[in-house]
Amino acid sequence: MQRDGRNQFDARRYMPGLDGLRALAVLAVIAYHLNLPWAPGGLLGVCIFFVLSGYLITDILVAQWQFSGGLNLKEFWLGRARRLLPALFVMLAGVIVWLSFCDPGRLSSLWKDVIAAVFYTSNWWLIFHQVSYFASFGPPSPLGHLWSLAIEEQFYLLWPLLLWMGLRYIPRRGRLIKLIMALAVTSAISMAIIYQPGMDPSRVYYGTDTRAFALLIGAALALVWPSRRLSADLLPRRRLFLDAAGGAALLAMLLMIWQSNQYQTFLYSGGLFLFAIISAVLVAVLAHPASRLGRLFGMQPLRWLGVCSYGIYLWHYPVIILTSPGFNTEGLSIVLAGEQMLLSILLAAVSWYFIEDPIRHGKWKKQWKGLSIVLRHRPRLLVAHGKATLTSIILIMFVFISVVSGCSLISHADQQSIPTRAAGKTKTEQTIKPAENQVQESMDNETESQAGTEANGDTDKRDVFTGKGVTAIGDSVMVEVGPALQKLFPDIVVDGKIGRQMYQAPQVIKNLKDQGILGNTVIIELGANGAFTEKQFADILELLGNDRQIVLINNRVPKPWESVVNHLLSQAAEDNSNIKLVDWYTASSGHNEYFYSDGVHLQQAGVQAYVSLVTDAVNP
User: Fold this and answer.
1) Percent of the chain predicted with pLDDT > 90
2) Domain 436-618's class?
3) Among 157, 370, 476, 599, which residue's beta carbon has the most beta carbons within 10 A?
4) Which residues are identified as catalytic?
């Protein structure tokens, strides 16, 4: 499997355009994790990384095979370890230190994530141990993004062995390419079969088997389009075609990042496979030395961002998670998002210049020795080693900034979840009343006022709406507000259940119909626990029929599916005359006092505001 002579051959041809593509991919992922409204499909950036990894790794290995007739797997795996592990370990240590100072209570739940990250099994850990991607309202793990690196590392371990077998026992290159593409199609079909529309997509999203197609498409491209055989001498017509193909692929890629989201059935039924093909076309164009688009992508600062993209990916998610408030009803903060992005890039730069590049090329001892000399003899060598000194200052500054900003923002988030002092007692000193009692108290004044008005004869009791013919279906939020609704409307039927999702609504509706208690007005409060498809919601509307008045309540939930759910509900209200939309999202904007720390469940003020909106919607 290996022969002498490997050290006399460099299997890699540097392609600066691919660094620019890396920059585009990591910026898309950051935009997605920042919940920027113009990049809901930014998660597709991971698919770009997969295609790039499949292409570059296979290109290197095939070139080595052609030169020496074998593969030096030991050197390959050690090279991957030097490239990936040091930066990962530094990031893990940074997160642990950060939490130790700012939020030590979260450390106990982090250690299993750390172990999974070290052994590159994060994706399967998420699949087998996460209760539900959609129903989880606790603070997300700052290491949740490492699932994609786990898939890549699993590929790096297995693919060289499989490729060696293919190159040795399938000498005809065309057959090998067909076999690799057959495996890719099998992976994509597995994703489509396992995925259930409207259900938690974690299994197919994180699975190595269901995401391998992107890596395999990149590997097949390396056999069809080996970088070392590409020539800069290309006829003008062919160069024009090359750039046109790359431009079309780039536009299609940006369009999917702009228009798609992780809850679309299309993505798991072939959409991701299509995106991987589009990515492969763009990789092929950018890898070609004659491509003008490749020169454009190889310009600074895209090229530099691509070089640091691994560190940026490592750091961006923990920075975002650990410096964001627990919930925020004010909407997107551009300033905070910019600071988080800048901090991620700067930490990645420090990682690249002090950790990744020196260790990768065996220069780390020399670099750190030089830095120590600078620190000991600062007056004499400050100018000569200005770059190292400046980098050291940046390192110190941003470690300080990261800790201070992280602690301050986390403290701010914690304060939002703690009620103000009452009678000199803090939350920990008080007995917290059940939600039902708070609901009852929140409505006492309103009920007493109504009773007083009726006693004075200003309102005829016969004209008071009792909620007869109204049915409310919802999740835990409906469980919270249900007692208050029933106090105002004694005849209303409330069916709320913790964790309920929209796909469960048809069965609830059928049960209520069978019991003869489904009213002519139906309130639906669902979507806080996960997204749903247009078809699923259309089936619910068909089941309810056009003769009923339907009241939809949209959501405020600090999860990525919030905008998807609210858009579907808004669209349904626009398209159907018998549907009325209660805009809880807008009504609760800027009112952090309405919510507990999860940003979903309601405190007393929130219950009052919520019930007031519903009352206005159902009163005849």
Assistant:
1) 61
2) alpha beta
3) 599
4) 476, 598, 601
